[in-house]
Design brief:
This protein is α/β, with parallel strands linked by helices. It has 11 helices and 14 strands. Helix 6 links the parallel strand 5 and strand 6. The longest helix has 22 residues. Bound molecules: nicotinamide-adenine-dinucleotide and UDP-4-deoxy-4-formamido-beta-L-arabinopyranose (WQD).
């Protein structure tokens, strides 16, 4: 079975390639490298000992997609390609809707024309907005994401639900990721953000290697154990394995299916800082800062549906997430431009 992996050179996509390869799937990667390096794919080749077919291009390029579906006998698409920086999405909403929503539409149209109806889509816990119940399950209402990025994910989810009503050939998995962190155990691939990281873990690891002076802890007056925000951090390898489980499920089941991919365990910002310090031996200087606009106090998954239906659950705990994030950063202080 051959999978088209859009955004396969990115953080989660590159880890997913390894899990797809070890589950016996063939694949071809489509990525425009707007937020990735082809070096990641070379490293995936070294880890898997397998050639990674790569097409440099954009999901919004209908002609290229037509050619790609003609050139490869693609059975399913795992669709990671997208822009994901929340603050950037507030400043440049049109760019986000064009890339994430219009890009997905072009891809879906090309799939219809090629007769490919199996899709795994990267969604986000952000579609729940400020969830009304915790842990948040797939049955919780969606609809009030706090930024254009989140709304772009929800719009694509809505398009996918509409597609299945219109045409019963579709088999679609919507995966709502919680907070992916960590890196492959080889420490040769990992998260390589552009500029100053906006996510917690890359910020911490860059403080640890001395690239940034100190962490700002956004908010210390939340109604949580220590006043700092609580999230469901999930190891990127566990997350990647969830995609294999979803693809296998789609082989047996038509329709649209939605799963949370999280651990079910919430940790505060200070829990994460302390766990990182323990594992790395590094001291993370921090200051308590005001809340960040748009942040919610607490968000963690009820992951039961994925366990029951996919037989998937996260296996790797916080310590392992910190360990792998640290090894990646330590061995690649400048990410993929390290060579
Ligand atoms: P990433 O930026 O590392 O990977 C996305 C990849 O898509 C990059 O390689 C980029 O070059 C590529 N890309 C972007 N637009 C493209 C386009 N128009 N055509 C072709 N390629 C394009 O991000 P990631 O963390 O690996 O995220 C993967 C997916 O998961 C994204 O859709 C993201 O929104 C979603 N997601 C990420 C997180 C997270 O915290 N990392 C959480 C929830 C959901
Ligand atoms: C985690 C916690 C911050 C940075 C975002 C997107 C979401 C998804 C994942 C893509 C929060 C605190 C952070 C820092 C801090 N992305 N923090 N200092 O906000 O839960 O989710 O990434 O889909 O859509 O919104 O993740 O890593 O930014 O923050 O104190 O320098 O760490 O306030 O409590 P978040 P995050």
């Amino acid at each position: 079975m051959t999978i088209l992996v859009t955004g396969g050179a990115g953080y989660i996509g590159s880890h997913a390639l390894i899990e797809l390869a070890s589950a016996g799937f063939d694949f071809v990667v489509l990525d425009n490298l707007c937020n990735a390096s082809s070096e990641a794919l070379q490293r995936v080749e070294a880890i898997t000992n397998k050639c990674v077919p790569f097409v440099l291009g954009d999901i919004r390029d209908a002609g290229l997609l037509k050619q790609l579906f003609a050139d490869y006998a693609i059975n399913a698409v795992v669709h990671f390609a997208g822009l994901k920086a929340v603050t950037e999405s507030v400043a440049e909403p049109l760019r986000y809707y064009d890339n994430n929503v219009h890009g997905s539409q072009v891809l879906l149209q090309a799939m219809v024309e090629a007769g490919v109806f199996n899709l795994v889509f990267s969604s986000s816990a952000t579609v729940y907005g400020d969830p009304v119940e915790m842990p948040v399950s797939e049955a919780c209402s969606v609809g009030r994401p706090t930024n254009p990025y989140g709304r772009s994910k929800l719009m694509v989810e809505d398009i996918l639900r509409d597609l299945v009503v219109a045409d019963r050939r579709w088999r679609i998995a919507i995966l709502r990721y919680f907070n992916p962190v960590g890196a492959h155990e080889s420490a040769t691939i990992g998260e390589d953000p552009n500029g100053i990281p906006s996510n917690l873990l890359p910020f911490i690891t860059q403080v640890a290697v001395g690239k940034l002076p100190q962490l700002s802890v956004f908010g210390s007056d939340y109604p949580t154990n220590d006043g700092t925000g609580v999230r469901d951090y999930i190891h990127v390898v566990d997350l990647a394995q969830g995609h294999v489980a979803a693809l296998c499920y789609l082989q047996e089941n038509a329709g649209v299916h939605t799963w949370n991919l999280g651990t079910g365990q919430g940790y505060s910002v200070l829990d994460v800082v302390h766990a990182f310090e323990l594992v790395s031996g590094a001291k993370i200087p921090y200051r308590l800062a005001p809340r960040r606009a748009g942040d919610i106090a607490v968000c963690y998954a009820n992951p039961d549906k994925a366990f029951v239906e996919l037989g998937w659950s996260a296996q790797l705990g916080l310590e392992r997430m910190m360990h792998d994030a640290w090894r990646w950063q330590k061995n690649n202080p400048n990410g993929y431009s390290n060579k």
